[in-house]
Protein backbone atom coordinates (compact mmCIF):
# COMPACT_ATOMS: atom_id res chain seq x y z
CA UNK A 1 0.00 0.00 0.00
CA UNK A 2 1.03 3.66 -0.30
CA UNK A 3 3.24 5.12 2.39
CA UNK A 4 1.48 5.92 5.64
CA UNK A 5 2.40 8.59 8.15
CA UNK A 6 4.72 6.30 10.11
CA UNK A 7 6.00 4.09 7.30
CA UNK A 8 9.66 3.19 7.78
CA UNK A 9 9.63 3.39 11.59
CA UNK A 10 10.62 0.09 13.23
CA UNK A 11 9.14 -0.70 16.66
CA UNK A 12 9.87 -3.61 19.00
CA UNK A 13 7.04 -4.20 21.48
CA UNK A 14 7.33 -6.41 24.56
CA UNK A 15 5.00 -7.19 27.43
CA UNK A 16 1.48 -8.34 28.21
CA UNK A 17 -2.13 -7.22 28.13
CA UNK A 18 -3.13 -3.70 27.18
CA UNK A 19 -0.93 -0.66 27.73
CA UNK A 20 2.13 -1.47 25.60
CA UNK A 21 -0.02 -3.35 23.07
CA UNK A 22 -2.32 -0.38 22.55
CA UNK A 23 0.59 2.04 22.18
CA UNK A 24 2.06 -0.35 19.62
CA UNK A 25 -1.27 -0.68 17.83
CA UNK A 26 -1.61 3.10 17.46
CA UNK A 27 1.79 3.19 15.76
CA UNK A 28 1.22 0.06 13.67
CA UNK A 29 -2.13 1.23 12.36
CA UNK A 30 -0.39 4.34 11.02
CA UNK A 31 2.19 2.29 9.16
CA UNK A 32 5.02 1.62 11.62
CA UNK A 33 6.57 -1.84 11.38
CA UNK A 34 5.80 -3.24 14.83
CA UNK A 35 7.39 -6.52 15.90
CA UNK A 36 5.45 -7.93 18.83
CA UNK A 37 7.69 -10.03 21.09
CA UNK A 38 5.68 -12.54 23.12
CA UNK A 39 6.79 -14.89 25.85
CA UNK A 40 6.77 -18.54 24.78
CA UNK A 41 3.39 -19.03 26.46
CA UNK A 42 2.03 -15.99 24.66
CA UNK A 43 0.78 -12.56 25.72
CA UNK A 44 -1.57 -13.05 28.68
CA UNK A 45 -4.17 -11.06 26.71
CA UNK A 46 -4.68 -14.27 24.74
CA UNK A 47 -6.38 -15.67 27.84
CA UNK A 48 -8.83 -12.76 28.09
CA UNK A 49 -12.24 -12.76 26.44
CA UNK A 50 -14.53 -12.27 24.83
CA UNK A 51 -14.23 -15.58 23.01
CA UNK A 52 -16.62 -16.88 20.34
CA UNK A 53 -19.10 -19.15 22.08
CA UNK A 54 -17.39 -18.35 25.40
CA UNK A 55 -14.84 -21.06 24.60
CA UNK A 56 -11.30 -19.87 25.47
CA UNK A 57 -8.80 -20.17 22.64
CA UNK A 58 -5.38 -18.43 22.47
CA UNK A 59 -5.97 -17.34 18.87
CA UNK A 60 -9.55 -16.12 19.32
CA UNK A 61 -9.36 -13.61 22.15
CA UNK A 62 -11.28 -10.50 21.13
CA UNK A 63 -8.98 -8.36 23.27
CA UNK A 64 -5.81 -9.75 21.72
CA UNK A 65 -7.15 -9.64 18.17
CA UNK A 66 -8.11 -5.98 18.52
CA UNK A 67 -4.91 -4.84 20.21
CA UNK A 68 -2.51 -6.43 17.78
CA UNK A 69 -3.66 -5.66 14.27
CA UNK A 70 -0.97 -4.73 11.74
CA UNK A 71 1.84 -6.29 13.80
CA UNK A 72 4.25 -9.11 13.11
CA UNK A 73 4.56 -11.55 16.00
CA UNK A 74 7.49 -13.55 17.33
CA UNK A 75 8.15 -15.57 20.46
CA UNK A 76 11.25 -15.09 22.61
CA UNK A 77 12.38 -16.23 26.04
CA UNK A 78 13.73 -13.05 27.62
CA UNK A 79 14.95 -15.00 30.66
CA UNK A 80 17.46 -16.88 28.54
CA UNK A 81 20.83 -15.27 27.65
CA UNK A 82 20.39 -16.26 24.00
CA UNK A 83 16.94 -14.72 24.06
CA UNK A 84 18.31 -11.45 25.38
CA UNK A 85 21.01 -11.49 22.70
CA UNK A 86 18.32 -11.80 20.05
CA UNK A 87 16.35 -8.98 21.66
CA UNK A 88 19.46 -6.79 21.48
CA UNK A 89 19.81 -7.64 17.79
CA UNK A 90 16.21 -6.62 17.17
CA UNK A 91 16.63 -3.40 19.15
CA UNK A 92 19.86 -2.53 17.30
CA UNK A 93 17.77 -2.22 14.13
CA UNK A 94 14.78 -0.50 15.74
CA UNK A 95 13.79 3.12 16.21
CA UNK A 96 11.52 2.46 19.19
CA UNK A 97 11.13 -0.14 21.93
CA UNK A 98 7.84 -0.28 23.85
CA UNK A 99 7.28 -2.46 26.90
CA UNK A 100 5.19 -2.72 30.05
CA UNK A 101 7.35 -5.04 32.14
CA UNK A 102 7.74 -3.95 35.75
CA UNK A 103 10.62 -1.53 36.41
CA UNK A 104 12.25 -4.02 38.79
CA UNK A 105 12.28 -6.66 36.00
CA UNK A 106 13.56 -4.56 33.11
CA UNK A 107 17.28 -5.17 33.47
CA UNK A 108 16.90 -8.91 34.14
CA UNK A 109 14.91 -9.26 30.90
CA UNK A 110 17.47 -7.45 28.79
CA UNK A 111 15.48 -4.20 28.70
CA UNK A 112 18.34 -2.13 30.08
CA UNK A 113 18.10 1.24 28.34
CA UNK A 114 21.73 2.22 28.91
CA UNK A 115 22.91 -1.00 27.31
CA UNK A 116 20.49 -0.89 24.40
CA UNK A 117 21.11 2.80 23.80
CA UNK A 118 24.87 2.25 23.78
CA UNK A 119 24.46 -0.14 20.87
CA UNK A 120 21.87 2.09 19.17
CA UNK A 121 22.29 5.75 20.25
CA UNK A 122 19.12 6.81 18.44
CA UNK A 123 16.92 4.25 20.19
CA UNK A 124 13.82 5.44 22.01
CA UNK A 125 12.61 3.15 24.79
CA UNK A 126 9.18 3.79 26.25
CA UNK A 127 8.44 2.06 29.54
CA UNK A 128 4.83 1.80 30.75
CA UNK A 129 4.27 0.96 34.41
CA UNK A 130 1.63 1.76 36.98
CA UNK A 131 3.78 4.05 39.16
CA UNK A 132 6.73 4.91 36.93
CA UNK A 133 10.39 3.96 37.20
CA UNK A 134 11.22 6.35 40.06
CA UNK A 135 9.65 7.37 43.34
CA UNK A 136 8.69 5.45 46.49
CA UNK A 137 5.98 3.42 44.72
CA UNK A 138 8.06 2.43 41.70
CA UNK A 139 8.66 -1.08 43.05
CA UNK A 140 4.97 -1.71 43.86
CA UNK A 141 3.03 -4.30 41.93
CA UNK A 142 -0.31 -3.10 40.57
CA UNK A 143 -3.08 -3.70 38.05
CA UNK A 144 -5.94 -1.87 36.37
CA UNK A 145 -8.06 -1.70 39.54
CA UNK A 146 -5.20 -0.29 41.60
CA UNK A 147 -4.32 2.25 38.91
CA UNK A 148 -7.90 3.51 38.76
CA UNK A 149 -7.92 4.06 42.50
CA UNK A 150 -4.36 5.38 42.78
CA UNK A 151 -5.03 7.93 40.05
CA UNK A 152 -8.18 9.22 41.79
CA UNK A 153 -10.64 8.12 39.11
CA UNK A 154 -12.51 5.50 41.12
CA UNK A 155 -13.00 7.84 44.09
CA UNK A 156 -15.29 10.08 42.01
CA UNK A 157 -17.19 7.20 40.37
CA UNK A 158 -20.12 6.69 40.17
CA UNK A 159 -21.01 10.38 40.31
CA UNK A 160 -23.87 11.73 42.40
CA UNK A 161 -24.32 8.52 44.36
CA UNK A 162 -26.78 8.44 47.24
CA UNK A 163 -25.25 5.28 48.68
CA UNK A 164 -22.18 5.97 50.86
CA UNK A 165 -22.07 2.32 51.91
CA UNK A 166 -21.21 1.29 48.35
CA UNK A 167 -17.54 1.33 47.29
CA UNK A 168 -15.96 3.38 44.52
CA UNK A 169 -16.27 1.92 41.04
CA UNK A 170 -13.65 1.80 38.32
CA UNK A 171 -14.65 2.16 34.69
CA UNK A 172 -15.34 -1.04 32.76
CA UNK A 173 -12.45 -2.98 31.29
CA UNK A 174 -8.88 -1.70 30.97
CA UNK A 175 -9.52 2.02 30.62
CA UNK A 176 -6.54 3.05 32.76
CA UNK A 177 -4.27 0.83 30.67
CA UNK A 178 -5.68 2.25 27.44
CA UNK A 179 -4.97 5.76 28.72
CA UNK A 180 -1.41 4.67 29.42
CA UNK A 181 -1.13 3.44 25.84
CA UNK A 182 -2.43 6.71 24.40
CA UNK A 183 -0.06 8.82 26.49
CA UNK A 184 2.84 6.53 25.66
CA UNK A 185 2.22 6.78 21.92
CA UNK A 186 2.07 10.58 22.03
CA UNK A 187 5.23 10.89 24.12
CA UNK A 188 7.04 8.35 21.95
CA UNK A 189 6.26 10.23 18.76
CA UNK A 190 7.48 13.44 20.41
CA UNK A 191 10.74 11.70 21.24
CA UNK A 192 10.96 10.36 17.70
CA UNK A 193 10.59 13.88 16.31
CA UNK A 194 13.42 14.98 18.60
CA UNK A 195 15.50 12.08 17.31
CA UNK A 196 14.87 13.19 13.74
CA UNK A 197 16.29 16.62 14.64
CA UNK A 198 19.22 15.52 16.78
CA UNK A 199 19.85 11.80 16.21
CA UNK A 200 19.53 11.25 19.96
CA UNK A 201 17.39 8.57 21.55
CA UNK A 202 15.95 8.66 25.06
CA UNK A 203 13.99 6.76 27.68
CA UNK A 204 10.30 7.71 28.10
CA UNK A 205 8.97 6.75 31.55
CA UNK A 206 5.14 6.54 31.55
CA UNK A 207 3.28 6.28 34.86
CA UNK A 208 -0.29 5.07 34.36
CA UNK A 209 -1.25 6.53 37.75
CA UNK A 210 -0.21 9.94 36.46
CA UNK A 211 -2.02 9.40 33.16
CA UNK A 212 -5.24 8.99 35.15
CA UNK A 213 -4.53 11.89 37.50
CA UNK A 214 -3.91 14.10 34.46
CA UNK A 215 -7.44 13.60 33.04
CA UNK A 216 -9.56 14.24 36.14
CA UNK A 217 -10.98 17.39 34.55
CA UNK A 218 -11.73 20.18 37.00
CA UNK A 219 -11.51 18.16 40.19
CA UNK A 220 -8.02 19.38 41.11
CA UNK A 221 -9.18 22.94 40.51
CA UNK A 222 -12.09 22.45 42.88
CA UNK A 223 -9.56 21.43 45.52
CA UNK A 224 -6.83 24.01 44.87
CA UNK A 225 -9.05 27.00 44.04
CA UNK A 226 -12.12 26.37 46.19
CA UNK A 227 -10.74 24.09 48.89
CA UNK A 228 -13.43 21.53 48.11
CA UNK A 229 -12.84 17.86 47.49
CA UNK A 230 -14.91 16.27 44.74
CA UNK A 231 -16.80 13.19 45.85
CA UNK A 232 -18.92 10.55 44.18
CA UNK A 233 -21.39 10.98 47.05
CA UNK A 234 -24.31 13.34 47.21
CA UNK A 235 -26.62 14.83 44.64
CA UNK A 236 -25.84 17.35 41.95
CA UNK A 237 -26.67 20.86 43.02
CA UNK A 238 -28.31 21.72 39.69
CA UNK A 239 -30.90 19.68 37.81
CA UNK A 240 -32.03 17.93 35.59
CA UNK A 241 -28.81 15.99 35.02
CA UNK A 242 -29.84 12.34 34.84
CA UNK A 243 -30.65 9.27 32.76
CA UNK A 244 -34.27 8.43 31.98
CA UNK A 245 -35.80 5.15 30.79
CA UNK A 246 -37.59 5.31 27.46
CA UNK A 247 -39.58 2.52 25.82
CA UNK A 248 -36.53 0.94 24.19
CA UNK A 249 -33.53 2.22 26.14
CA UNK A 250 -32.08 5.08 28.13
CA UNK A 251 -31.51 8.73 27.32
CA UNK A 252 -29.13 11.11 29.08
CA UNK A 253 -30.52 14.53 29.99
CA UNK A 254 -28.47 17.63 30.83
CA UNK A 255 -30.74 20.68 30.90
CA UNK A 256 -29.46 22.90 33.68
CA UNK A 257 -29.68 26.23 31.84
CA UNK A 258 -33.01 28.00 32.24
CA UNK A 259 -33.64 28.42 28.52
CA UNK A 260 -33.00 24.70 28.02
CA UNK A 261 -35.40 23.86 30.82
CA UNK A 262 -38.14 26.08 29.33
CA UNK A 263 -37.84 24.37 25.96
CA UNK A 264 -37.98 20.96 27.64
CA UNK A 265 -41.14 21.99 29.54
CA UNK A 266 -42.69 23.05 26.22
CA UNK A 267 -41.79 19.67 24.71
CA UNK A 268 -43.49 18.00 27.69
CA UNK A 269 -46.66 19.95 26.90
CA UNK A 270 -46.28 22.58 29.64
CA UNK A 271 -47.53 20.34 32.48
CA UNK A 272 -49.00 22.12 35.50
CA UNK A 273 -46.44 20.60 37.88
CA UNK A 274 -43.64 22.47 36.05
CA UNK A 275 -45.01 25.75 37.46
CA UNK A 276 -44.54 24.68 41.07
CA UNK A 277 -42.25 26.90 43.12
CA UNK A 278 -40.04 23.94 44.06
CA UNK A 279 -39.04 23.68 40.37
CA UNK A 280 -38.60 27.41 39.73
CA UNK A 281 -34.86 27.31 38.98
CA UNK A 282 -32.06 24.81 38.53
CA UNK A 283 -30.95 24.96 42.16
CA UNK A 284 -34.52 24.41 43.37
CA UNK A 285 -34.85 21.53 40.95
CA UNK A 286 -31.64 20.07 42.36
CA UNK A 287 -32.85 20.40 45.94
CA UNK A 288 -36.15 18.79 45.01
CA UNK A 289 -34.79 16.05 42.79
CA UNK A 290 -36.91 13.37 44.51
CA UNK A 291 -40.11 15.17 43.54
CA UNK A 292 -39.02 16.05 39.98
CA UNK A 293 -37.53 12.78 38.82
CA UNK A 294 -40.81 10.76 38.82
CA UNK A 295 -42.47 13.38 36.60
CA UNK A 296 -39.58 13.27 34.12
CA UNK A 297 -39.47 9.48 34.16
CA UNK A 298 -43.21 9.13 33.56
CA UNK A 299 -42.97 11.45 30.56
CA UNK A 300 -39.87 9.80 29.06
CA UNK A 301 -41.43 6.34 29.31
CA UNK A 302 -43.87 7.33 26.54
CA UNK A 303 -41.06 7.89 24.04
CA UNK A 304 -38.63 5.82 22.03
CA UNK A 305 -35.04 6.94 22.42
CA UNK A 306 -34.47 7.95 18.79
CA UNK A 307 -37.71 9.93 18.65
CA UNK A 308 -37.02 11.81 21.87
CA UNK A 309 -33.44 12.53 20.81
CA UNK A 310 -34.63 13.93 17.48
CA UNK A 311 -37.32 16.03 19.15
CA UNK A 312 -34.72 17.42 21.53
CA UNK A 313 -32.30 18.22 18.72
CA UNK A 314 -34.99 20.15 16.88
CA UNK A 315 -35.52 22.30 19.99
CA UNK A 316 -31.85 22.57 21.07
CA UNK A 317 -32.48 20.48 24.19
CA UNK A 318 -29.50 18.56 25.54
CA UNK A 319 -30.39 14.89 25.15
CA UNK A 320 -28.07 12.03 24.24
CA UNK A 321 -28.89 8.38 23.63
CA UNK A 322 -27.16 5.98 26.03
CA UNK A 323 -25.91 3.68 23.29
CA UNK A 324 -25.48 -0.04 23.80
CA UNK A 325 -22.81 -1.89 21.84
CA UNK A 326 -25.53 -3.08 19.46
CA UNK A 327 -26.66 0.54 18.97
CA UNK A 328 -23.13 1.61 18.08
CA UNK A 329 -22.63 -1.29 15.71
CA UNK A 330 -25.83 -0.33 13.87
CA UNK A 331 -25.15 3.42 13.94
CA UNK A 332 -25.77 5.04 10.56
CA UNK A 333 -23.28 7.77 11.46
CA UNK A 334 -20.46 5.36 12.26
CA UNK A 335 -21.25 3.40 9.12
CA UNK A 336 -21.02 6.54 7.03
CA UNK A 337 -17.58 7.22 8.47
CA UNK A 338 -16.56 3.58 7.92
CA UNK A 339 -15.54 3.28 11.56
CA UNK A 340 -15.97 -0.48 11.77
CA UNK A 341 -13.59 -2.44 9.56
CA UNK A 342 -13.66 -6.10 8.54
CA UNK A 343 -10.58 -8.29 8.47
CA UNK A 344 -9.98 -12.02 8.25
CA UNK A 345 -7.83 -13.97 10.68
CA UNK A 346 -6.58 -17.45 9.81
CA UNK A 347 -7.95 -18.98 13.03
CA UNK A 348 -10.61 -16.59 14.36
CA UNK A 349 -12.20 -16.02 10.96
CA UNK A 350 -13.64 -12.84 9.47
CA UNK A 351 -14.66 -10.28 12.09
CA UNK A 352 -15.52 -6.60 12.39
CA UNK A 353 -13.12 -4.40 14.34
CA UNK A 354 -13.33 -0.85 15.71
CA UNK A 355 -11.37 1.45 13.43
CA UNK A 356 -9.60 4.75 13.97
CA UNK A 357 -11.32 7.71 15.66
CA UNK A 358 -9.54 10.13 13.28
CA UNK A 359 -9.15 10.54 9.54
CA UNK A 360 -5.97 12.19 8.25
CA UNK A 361 -6.37 13.55 4.74
CA UNK A 362 -3.20 11.81 3.57
CA UNK A 363 -1.07 8.84 4.65
CA UNK A 364 -3.69 7.74 7.09
CA UNK A 365 -4.87 4.82 9.13
CA UNK A 366 -5.33 1.38 7.61
CA UNK A 367 -6.19 -2.11 8.81
CA UNK A 368 -4.25 -4.39 6.50
CA UNK A 369 -3.03 -7.28 8.68
CA UNK A 370 -4.80 -9.29 11.42
CA UNK A 371 -3.20 -9.96 14.78
CA UNK A 372 -0.43 -12.57 14.52
CA UNK A 373 -0.82 -16.13 15.65
CA UNK A 374 1.67 -17.14 18.33
CA UNK A 375 5.16 -17.09 16.80
CA UNK A 376 3.75 -16.62 13.29
CA UNK A 377 6.64 -14.50 12.02
CA UNK A 378 9.58 -16.18 13.79
CA UNK A 379 11.17 -17.37 10.55
CA UNK A 380 10.60 -14.07 8.77
CA UNK A 381 11.85 -11.80 11.56
CA UNK A 382 14.74 -13.88 12.87
CA UNK A 383 15.74 -14.78 9.34
CA UNK A 384 15.94 -11.04 8.72
CA UNK A 385 18.62 -10.66 11.39
CA UNK A 386 20.73 -13.48 10.01
CA UNK A 387 19.45 -16.72 11.56
CA UNK A 388 19.13 -19.73 9.30
CA UNK A 389 16.12 -22.04 9.35
CA UNK A 390 18.25 -24.67 11.11
CA UNK A 391 19.37 -22.19 13.77
CA UNK A 392 15.78 -21.12 14.37
CA UNK A 393 14.72 -24.73 14.87
CA UNK A 394 17.66 -25.34 17.20
CA UNK A 395 16.77 -22.31 19.32
CA UNK A 396 13.16 -23.46 19.40
CA UNK A 397 14.31 -26.83 20.73
CA UNK A 398 16.37 -25.07 23.40
CA UNK A 399 13.34 -23.12 24.66
CA UNK A 400 14.64 -19.77 23.38
CA UNK A 401 12.01 -19.27 20.66
Task: Offer a few descriptive terms.
401 residues; alpha/beta; three-stranded antiparallel β-sheet; 16 helices
Structure report:
α1 crosses α6. The protein is α/β, with parallel strands linked by helices and 401 residues long. A hairpin with a 4-residue loop joins β7 and β8. The protein is built from 16 helices and 11 strands. It has a 6-stranded parallel sheet. It has 2 domains: 266 residues, 3-Layer(aba) Sandwich (Rossmann fold), CATH 3.40.50.10540; 84 residues, formyl-coa transferase, domain 3 (2-Layer Sandwich). The two termini are 31 Å apart.
- Give the percentage of residues in beta strands: 5-15%
Mean pLDDT: 95
Spatial strand arrangement across the major sheet: 3-2-1-4-5-6
Uncertain residue ranges: none
Gap from first CA to last CA:
31 Å
Tell me the total number of β-strands.
11
CATH fold assignment of the largest domain? Rossmann fold
Compute the gyration radius: what is it? 26 Å
Work out the helix count: 16
* Outline: elongated
CATH superfamily of the largest domain: Crotonobetainyl-coa:carnitine coa-transferase, domain 1
The CATH architecture term of the largest domain is 3-Layer(aba) Sandwich
CATH class call of the largest domain: Alpha Beta
Helix content: 25-40%
Number of domains: 2
Instruction: Please give the largest β-sheet.
Output: 6 strands, parallel
Q: Secondary structure elements and their pairing?
A:
Layout: E1 10-14, H1 19-28, E2 33-38, H2 62-67, E3 71-75, H3 81-92, E4 96-99, H4 113-119, E5 124-129, H5 144-150, H6 175-198, E6 202-207, H7 208-213, H8 219-226, E7 241-245, E8 250-254, H9 258-267, H10 282-287, H11 289-300, H12 305-314, E9 319-321, H13 325-329, H14 332-336, E10 340-345, E11 349-354, H15 378-384, H16 389-397
Parallel strand pairs: 1-2, 1-4, 2-3, 4-5, 5-6
Antiparallel strand pairs: 7-8, 8-9, 10-11
Helix pairs in contact: 1-6
Amino acid sequence: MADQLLSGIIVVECGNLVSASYAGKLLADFGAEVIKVEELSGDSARKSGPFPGDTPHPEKSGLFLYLNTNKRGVTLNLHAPKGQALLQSLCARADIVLHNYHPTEMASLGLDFARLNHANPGLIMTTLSYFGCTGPYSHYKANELIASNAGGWAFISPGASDYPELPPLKAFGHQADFQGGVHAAVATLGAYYHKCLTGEGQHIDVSIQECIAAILEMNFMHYTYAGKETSRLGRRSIYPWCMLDCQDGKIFVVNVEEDQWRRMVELMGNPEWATLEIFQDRVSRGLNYDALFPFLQEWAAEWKVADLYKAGQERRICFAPVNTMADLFASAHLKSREFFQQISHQVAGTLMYPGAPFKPSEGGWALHRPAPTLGQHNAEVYGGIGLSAAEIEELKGQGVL
